[in-house]
Amino acid sequence: MSGVFVSVGSMMPFDRLTRAMDEWAAAHPGIGVEIQIGKGEYEPRHARWVRKLPLAEYQTRVETCALFVAHCGMGSIISAIEAGKPILMLPRLAAQGEHNNDHQLATAKHIGVRPGLHVAADSADLKVRATALLADAGGAPAPISRFADPAFTDRIRAFIES
Question: CATH says 4-161 is which class?
Fold first, then answer.
């Protein structure tokens, strides 16, 4: 896949993201869009969609897409960083029943300042940014280690053992 891969995550539906990217797909018929919709009620009409993907297929989609679009969940962010792919995110909002609280707004505020991690303010901004990022994705996110810094774990160990 070299087009756009969209993921709402595996925990909760996110129809606002699905609908926005389906509308974007309708406006860009020459670009392949696939949306992993999870338990969402909205079923895309202009983009290919799947409810859930096995982990290996999900990772392949992230690695091979030109643009990865997702909610502001840490699993999606880590997947993008590990694949070296810029990610465009739309935070879930508690006021719209998309999550139990607004922790994704806090995540977006802190993580959205890192290179390669882009945050949209709303559905309209998401569509504008998707178009811009496909034209010039910029740099990939800075890599991160799967493991904590040994100096950090040594400090924790010393604290626990004291």
Answer: alpha beta
C-alpha 143/C-alpha 85 separation (Å) is 10
Identify any residues that bridge with 68 across adjacent strands, giving them in sequence order.
Answer: 5, 87
pLDDT tops 90 at residue 93: no
What is the 8-class DSSP label of residue 41?
S
Please state the rounded mean pLDDT for residues 134-152: 73
What single DSSP character describes residue 84?
Answer: T
DSSP 12: S
Give domain limits for the chain. 4-161
Quote the CA–CA distance of 43 and 23 in Å, as a whole number. 12
How many other C-beta atoms lie within 10 A of the C-beta of residue 62?
21
Q: How far apart are CA 1 and CA 131, in angstroms?
A: 17
Q: Given a cut of 80, is residue 98 above it in pLDDT?
A: no
Q: How far apart are the first and last CA of the chain?
A: 52
* Closest of 108, 130, 119 to residue 20, by C-alpha: 130
Tokens of 108: 């977006």
